[in-house]
Structure formats: structure tokens, C-alpha cells
Design a protein that fits this description.
Length: about 900
């Protein structure tokens, strides 16, 4: 082997405001064409390679605006309708060309292709294109990185704070959606200016890429040109290879211009009868439909029919040529530099499929060839290369971009220079707003967040680029002017105290991307971070955490959550006080691993002649009394209140009002969700108390996207108020113990919504196949008698052990004995017990509901089944018991995921970010 090839695709489209009506918009068509021609074909191609065991590697930059659109359910639904319309046109084209020997094969090709794409999007991916990308990353085929929040061109952004916001908002959003921090960063348009590396380093970025001349003009000049990375300000910089770019980008000299390939500019949207096409034309105006029947042919108006099979042969020829030239490059540099050369080949993702129709096929063939052992170059990701060959040279860089002229000309010229004074004025105004406000009201917070969104959206590099190329100038001008007008209207209302809530709500509904946007990034004293992305704690925060249960006195997962979160926060240098229920009748305080735990009296418990709500009131009075004492003791230090669920809501609200302390609420479950509705006055009261807690809190934390949606649908908090931070789990080491017959384990509360009744029915049928199997049900709850009765009715009582409530030690013993752990919930906000089984390396089966569906990736880290479906659960049980090797693979993947994404250290750092967001650290 002589070198390495690092192919990078940059996927970006500007954000589309949510449409008001049912009609397809011009912006949506832009996105939907890219999905149909580029993104979906590329993902399917990569999955095909992975399924064939091809060890390809690729780096993918996903812009936050594109990512936010890919996860938007409304866009997913509307894209499905777009595909339906395209298939309808394809069917009509099949009929129209049925007697035409030249064009009938092309029409048939388009029909089959669209049908396959529709099945993939709707049935295989169910509208979710992010999950398959995550899976490819988990397999090691993709390294996914990010770029600026709205693709802002950093060299022309005036203030460091506004540059920082473009970077940090992107990194935060990436972590929130992808579940990990990006190692690399794609500078929009490869636009670099000195000092940008400092902002990237603060955000925890390890490397970025510059245009070839950016590295070649560095001082001192790099010894290996662009074929080895260098260091700049503590970060690694790779240089873009010009030769690979020219071979693929150039339409006149590169591969896409070959006469055999499809002609981009000839479309039936301009050729066929208008009345025939009218139902498929946007706004009744002629335009591209995607149905193109001709090949490039040559520089002539007389075009030949397109032949996809002939194009595929040419694809293979060009892929061989590409790889041969990479070998030549690598062999040239071998021996002329220390280490092995890396050829960095970045491209816009939309080139493959949209501009160059055969691009995805060509890329697939290149990846196949490069993954073989027939070439001197080996595929790599940029992080993988860095692990082997860290940079040896330190240089200084000047301005550069990959645009025409190599610097800023494309984004700053007489066609677009009018916008920069307005953008720079808005930057300063945003900075003034953020600097002025240290304790905003909820409405002011919304205004600040939306103003930041409008500024970010106005800064997109797409608008000045469109103005320069003069393609859809009116649209670009309209977007720029609209975002700037929105910003200054918000700014004026904020400065003059005339906040327009209706106007704000309208903007949030149309342009509500980045719901957790941190507007404090625009403050001049922006919070700093280490190179690893971890927040450095200068002033030690003080947190008063309220919870009704805490180990060893706990019923479910809430107490475990509070204990492990508080301990992890203490390790992050947070001073944590936990107020909770005393195990007896006397108050006491202890210090446990750095956390002060204050037990308040139990009083008389419910069920002893005391009404439940009256007991809750008494408990909250005791919590509040202890809270007053602690506030006075900790004064004048600032204290953050953190309440866990409605049982402590009254005390939390009283302390907030008495001391003006910020309040954060973690909603672990809702009364509505637990009972699948509100069926009696008690449930209505509890629901109301939950709503008051959500309304009173500055921030609401939920453990899953499912739970966040439930809270938003039930209580309608302002946009951006709810944050998703998953539960964590401690490392669990178990000892495998041999038992007679396979053991199926359930751990959790015994209530209807946990679905144990479904497990019992499936287990009864499993015994006909595996008569030696045993089921252990570990947990306590009001539904236990009914479950035992059901086991007797099913004649399986002798094979089912109801173990009652078990300690963590006993739980670990049971995990060590079990073949599989099953969590069949009908309603599950998160499912920490499933996470614990995964951490222990036990194969898991979960119902496809709530947080469980987010934790377990079906077929990768476990199996999932339809909630309440006995037959589907039986299928999963049989598969696990019949395929021990596959079950072991699930366990390994699951444990790796837990160790990567669900450590309490990571959860504590995310929680600490929320504390800091409300601006109340001392």
C-alpha cells in the first residue's frame, strides 16, 4: 500500500420555511429533487455495499439545515406525496411511450426507479433517512461531520461572537440529533480566514479542510503539499486535492461530460404538451420534471436516446480510470514525504445524482474498487488517517475558499455587496440584545432565540451565491430581506418593550429550527470550552434537586436516575443537594460521594387512612421547609432548583417564587401517558399539577424524543423550552451462571402499561418450542395479582417465577443467569431497565414504543416488536433462542452503544449545559 484516499461528500441545502398550504413550494421541489436524485440513491448504494460486506469508508458532512429538514415529520410526509405524484407521471409516461422503441425503455426505467425509491423511503426507512446514516457510521463505513448552522460564509461574518454562534449552534444540534460530537468541520465554501481555527477548537473540533491553494500558500510551505495534514492553532488542517476535483467536477473535461451520460438540460417539462404536463408543473410554469430521455451525445442539438445500461458500462470504465490515477498520485509521493500520503477528495453531495445522474453508480463502483486489494491506495476517513499519521508541521494560513477566484469574490461583489452592511448591523444588534439580558422572561427568551434564528438564516452563503450566479435572484433577495426585516422587527420590539407575541409565534411556526438554540453565544463573554468540547467550570454551580424517591428507598427508575445524575454532577464540580423522602419518620442529612442528601419526614403514608393528595401536600410542605433552610444557608450564592416529576412540584414552585431561583423540571412520565388518557378526578388533578410544573419551569428536560413530544402535545410549552437528555446507566459487570433451561427475564414495575401480560402470553406459546424455558418476573406493583392469575390460566405458573422487588445486586445476578431480557411496555417514556440489560451484555427484546424504540436499533442492538403483539414478541423470542451467535452480536453492539452514548458523565455534562443556559451560575 502506498497511500490513502479520503472521499468527502458535503450535503447541504438551505432551510425551507414550513409551507402554509398544501401546494408544493419551489423550495420544497429543490429539496425533493435532491432527495430523489442524490440523497436516497446514495444511502441505498452505501447500504448495499455494507450488506455485501464491502469495507468502504467515506466522510459525510451534513449541514444542520439539511439535517433539520430530514427529521421534520411534515417534510417527510410531503415528500412521500411528491413521490406519489412522480410515480403517477411515470405511469403516464409508460403509457405514452409504450409504442416507442427508442423511449419506452427509458420511461420503464424511470417508473421502476421511482417505485423502488418510494418503497425504500416509505416502507424500509419509514421516512427516516438519519437512522440508516447513523447505522453506517456505527459500522465504521461513514464518518459524519458538520458545518456552520446555516452555512454562513465565515470570512465575511463581522464579529467573533456571530462566527462562534454559526459554529457552536451547529455542533450542539449535531450532538443532539446524532448522539455524539463531530470530530471534523466543513467550512462552508471552504471559506477560511485567520482566527477561525480558535472558534473551531473552542467547539471541540479536531480538523477542517481548506482549498488546495489555501494550504499551498501557507507559511512555511508544507513539505508534502496537500498530501499530508498540518497543524494550525492546535487544529489539524487537510488540503483539498485539485486533480480529483477536476476529474469529477469539470463538465467539459471531467467524467460527467461523457456523451453516454444523461443530458441534464433536456427535460420533458419543456418538450411535451403543456396541458398534459400541467398537473405536474410547479405553479403551472414549465420547468424540470426529472424525466430526461436523452444522453449528452456531444456538442450538438441533435441528441440520442438515453441508455442507462450503456451508461453503467461507462461508469465502470471511469471508476477504473479514477483509481488508476489515484495509484499514480500515491506512488509519486511515496518516499518523497514522511508517512503515507492522503488524497483528500471533497465534493458537493448533490453533484452525484442531481447534476451527474450516474454519479451515485460511479461512486459505488469507486468504493468497491478502492475497498479491494488491487490498488495502492486504501480508503480512509480523515479521523482514521489522523490516528495513524498525526500532523508534523505547524503553519500559518491566509484567506482562501474554493469559489471562483479562490477567495471571497463569489460571495462579495457588486451583485450582493448591499447585504453585508445590513448583516453586520444585525450582528451588532443581536450582540447588544444578548449582552443586555441576563434574566429574561420566558417571552423575552423566545424573542432572543427567534432573533438569533433570523440572523443565522440571513447569513446563509446560499443567498449571495445565488445573487452572483443570477439563477433565482428574486427568491434569494426575498429570503434575505424577509429574514432581516423579521430580525429588526423583533429587535425593535425588544428594545422598546413592545413584544408582539402573535408575530413571534408565527415566525416560530414557520422557522422554528434549532429549538434549543443558545442565544447567549452572542454575549461578548461567551462561555469557553476545552479542546475536547467539555465545559470548563469556573464558578461552581449549586443545585437543589427535589425527588420523592432515592435509593435505597425507591420504587422505579426515577430514584436511580436522581442518584446517578447527582453523583455524576458532583464529579463535574457541581455542588448538589438532594431533598427526598426519609426512610423513617425523622429528618436527617448525610454526605454520599460528594452529594448532600437531606431526608425529610415521611409523616403518615397514603393507605393508612390518609388521602393520597393530602399526603403529597404534607410531603411538599416538609420539602419546602427544608428548602427554605438550605436557601438561607447557601445565601448569597445562587441556587438552581431541579424538580423531578409532579410529586415535588408544589415545593419547587414555592421555593422558586420565594427566592427567585431558576427552576428546571425533569418530566419522567405523565399521568395521561401512564393511563392512556384521564379517566377520573384524581388523574385530572395530577395532570393539572404536571401542567403547572411545566409552565413554571424555565427549562423542561425529557429523557426521550417520544417523551418530549408527549409533553409538548399535552402542555404546549414555548418552542425550545423542552430539552431531550437521555437517562444514563452505570457499568454493569455480571457473572454468567449456568442454569437448567433458558431464562427469559423481565425487570420493572408490575403495572398494566409495562405489558407483562403480553410477555406471559408469548411465553406460554414459547414453551411449546422450548419446554425447558423459564420466565423470571422481577418487580412489584399493583398489577401483580392479575399477572399471577393470568399465569395460572395459561397453565405456565410452574415455569414462571414472580421474584418481587429485587435489589440491584439481585438484579445483576438475574441478568447473569438470563438468555434474554424482555421489556414489553405499552407505554414507556424511556426504559432505563432495558439500558441496564444492554450495559450488562444481555440480549434485549423491546416493544417498539416510546423511549425503548429510540434506545434499541432493531437488528443491530437487539430486537423490537409491535406493542401488544403476542405473535411478534414470540417471533423475537424464538429468533434469540435459536440464534445464539446473533444474540451475542446484538449484545456486543448494545454494550458498545451504551458505553458510547449513555454514560452518566455524558448525561451530567448535557444537564450542566442546561443549567448554564439559564444564566444562573454563581
Amino acid at each position: 500500500m502506498a497511500g490513502h484516499l479520503a472521499i468527502l461528500l458535503h450535503a447541504h441545502l438551505p432551510y425551507i420555511p414550513r409551507p402554509d398550504g398544501a401546494e408544493l413550494t419551489w423550495e420544497e421541489k429543490w429539496l425533493f429533487e435532491a432527495l430523489t436524485e442524490s440523497y436516497l440513491p446514495l444511502i441505498r448504494s452505501w447500504e448495499r455495499l455494507a450488506q455485501e460486506g464491502i469495507g468502504f469508508k467515506l466522510t459525510l458532512s451534513l449541514s444542520p439545515t439539511l439535517l433539520s429538514m430530514l427529521i421534520d415529520p411534515q417534510i417527510q410526509e410531503r415528500y412521500g406525496l411528491f413521490l406519489d405524484k412522480m410515480i403517477e407521471l411515470a405511469e403516464r409516461e409508460r403509457e405514452r411511450t409504450s409504442q416507442d422503441l427508442k423511449f419506452s425503455p427509458v420511461a420503464e426505467f424511470y417508473f421502476n426507479r421511482l417505485k423502488e425509491l418510494a418503497v425504500a423511503f416509505k416502507e424500509v426507512y419509514q421516512g427516516d433517512l438519519v437512522t440508516p446514516l447513523k447505522k453506517l457510521q456505527a459500522r465504521g463505513n461513514l464518518e459524519i461531520i458538520t458545518t456552520c448552522a446555516t452555512h454562513g460564509y465565515l470570512p465575511l461574518i463581522l464579529t467573533p461572537e456571530a462566527q462562534r454562534a454559526q459554529v457552536k449552534v451547529a455542533v450542539d444540534f449535531f450532538e443532539e440529533i446524532m448522539g455524539l460530537s463531530p470530530a471534523g468541520f466543513w467550512l462552508p465554501e471552504c471559506g477560511y480566514a485567520p482566527g477561525i481555527e480558535r472558534i473551531l477548537k473552542e467547539a471541540g473540533i479536531n480538523y477542517f479542510i481548506v482549498a488546495a491553494h489555501g494550504l499551498l500558500n501557507a507559511r512555511p510551505r508544507p513539505q508534502a503539499a496537500v498530501y499530508a495534514p498540518v497543524r494550525v492553532g492546535g487544529l489539524t488542517v487537510f488540503g483539498r486535492d485539485w486533480e480529483t476535483s477536476h476529474q469529477v467536477w469539470s463538465r467539459t473535461e471531467g467524467y460527467p461530460g461523457d456523451p453516454v451520460y444523461r443530458e441534464f438540460y433536456r427535460d420533458i417539462g419543456y418538450d411535451l404538451d403543456f396541458e398534459y404536463l400541467a398537473p405536474y408543473l410547479l405553479g403551472g410554469i414549465r420547468g424540470d420534471t426529472g424525466f430526461k430521455y436523452y444522453r449528452i451525445t456531444g456538442s450538438t442539438e441533435s441528441k440520442e436516446p438515453y441508455d442507462y445500461q450503456a451508461a453503467c458500462l461507462k461508469v465502470r470504465e471511469h471508476a477504473y480510470d479514477f483509481m488508476e490515477k489515484r495509484d499514480q498520485q500515491a506512488l509519486y509521493w511515496t518516499g518523497r514525504m514522511e508517512g503515507e500520503p492522503v488524497i483528500v477528495a471533497p465534493y458537493d453531495a448533490e453533484l452525484f445524482g442531481h447534476w451527474w445522474f450516474e454519479g451515485p453508480d460511479w461512486l459505488e463502483e469507486v468504493l468497491r474498487l478502492a475497498a479491494s486489494s488491487n490498488y495502492q491506495v486504501q480508503l480512509t476517513t480523515l479521523s482514521e488517517y489522523l490516528d495513524k499519521y498525526p500532523p508534523r508541521e505547524e503553519v500559518n494560513l491566509g484567506f482562501s475558499s474554493w469559489g471562483e477566484g479562490g477567495y471571497n469574490q463569489m460571495w462579495l461583489n457588486p451583485t450582493n455587496d448591499w447585504v453585508y452592511p445590513l448583516l453586520h448591523q444585525a450582528e451588532k444588534a443581536m450582540q447588544a440584545m444578548a449582552q443586555k439580558t441576563r434574566d429574561p422572561s420566558p417571552l423575552e427568551e423566545r424573542v432572543l432565540r427567534q432573533a438569533a434564528r433570523e440572523l443565522l438564516l440571513a447569513q446563509s452563503s446560499d443567498w449571495p451565491f445565488i445573487l452572483t450566479t443570477k439563477t433565482v435572484m428574486e427568491y434569494a433577495q426575498g429570503r434575505l430581506k424577509t429574514h432581516l426585516q423579521n430580525f429588526f422587527r423583533l429587535y425593535q420590539g425588544y428594545q422598546q418593550g413592545g413584544l408582539e407575541e402573535d408575530f413571534l409565534a408565527c415566525l416560530e411556526a414557520r422557522e422554528g429550527l434549532f429549538p434549543n438554540l443558545d442565544y447567549s453565544l452572542y454575549q461578548r463573554e461567551a462561555k469557553k470550552e476545552t479542546g475536547q468540547g467539555r465545559v470548563s467550570v469556573v464558578n461552581k454551580p449549586v443545585v437543589l434537586m427535589l425527588a420523592w424517591e432515592f435509593p435505597p428507598q425507591h420504587v422505579g427508575g426515577l430514584g436511580i436516575h436522581v442518584r446517578d445524575l447527582s453523583l455524576a454532577l458532583a464529579r463535574e464540580e457541581v455542588e448538589v443537594h438532594v431533598l427526598t423522602l426519609a426512610p423513617g419518620e425523622e429528618a436527617s442529612s448525610i454526605v454520599y460521594e460528594g452529594v448532600e442528601i437531606h431526608y425529610v419526614p415521611r409523616y403518615q403514608g397514603p393507605g393508612q387512612g390518609v388521602d393520597f393528595l393530602y399526603w403529597v401536600l404534607q410531603f411538599n410542605l416538609a420539602l419546602a421547609d427544608k428548602g427554605y433552610e438550605l436557601f438561607y444557608r447557601l445565601s448569597p450564592r445562587k441556587v438552581i432548583l431541579h424538580a423531578h416529576d409532579w410529586l415535588v412540584a408544589s415545593a419547587a414552585q414555592e421555593l422558586k417564587r420565594a427566592f427567585g431561583a431558576p427552576l428546571i423540571a425533569t418530566i419522567h412520565a405523565t399521568e395521561y401517558g401512564r393511563n392512556r388518557g384521564l379517566h377520573n378526578p384524581l388523574q385530572e388533578i395530577i395532570h393539572g399539577m404536571e401542567g403547572e410544573l411545566v409552565a413554571e419551569a424555565q427549562k423542561v428536560i425529557c429523557c426521550s424524543q417520544y417523551m418530549a413530544r408527549e409533553v409538548e402535545e399535552l402542555f404546549h410549552p414555548p418552542l425550545g423550552k423542552v430539552r431531550v437528555i437521555p437517562n444514563g446507566v452505570r457499568p454493569i459487570d455480571i457473572t454468567r451462571e449456568g442454569e437448567k433451561g433458558p431464562i427469559v427475564l423481565y425487570v420493572g414495575r408490575l403495572v398494566v402499561e409495562k405489558g407483562v401480560q403480553v410477555l406471559l402470553k408469548a411465553f406460554a406459546r414459547l414453551l411449546t418450542l422450548f419446554p425447558e424455558a423459564r420466565l423470571v418476573v422481577a418487580g412489584a406493583g399493583p398489577y401483580a395479582p392479575e399477572l399471577k392469575h393470568l399465569a395460572a390460566l395459561l397453565n405456565i405458573a410452574e415455569r414462571v417465577e414472580f421474584a418481587g422487588f429485587v435489589s440491584e445486586t439481585r438484579r445483576n445476578e438475574l441478568l447473569g443467569q438470563s438468555y434474554v431480557a424482555v421489556f414489553p411496555s405499552l407505554y414507556e417514556p424511556f426504559g432505563i431497565v432495558a439500558l441496564e440489560a444492554m450495559a450488562a451484555g444481555v440480549p434485549v427484546i423491546v416493544s417498539r414504543t416510546g423511549g425503548l424504540a429510540e434506545i434499541v436499533e432493531d437488528g443491530m442492538t437487539g430486537l423490537s416488536f409491535a406493542p401488544g403483539d403476542v405473535e411478534d414478541l414470540l417471533r423475537c423470542l424464538v429468533f434469540i433462542l435459536q440464534n445464539p451467535a446473533k444474540a451475542e452480536e446484538f449484545s456486543r453492539q448494545a454494550r458498545a452503544k451504551v458505553e458510547r452514548d449513555y454514560t452518566w458523565e455524558a448525561i451530567a455534562r448535557h444537564t450542566l449545559e442546561v443549567y448554564k443556559e439559564i444564566g444562573k451560575e454563581e
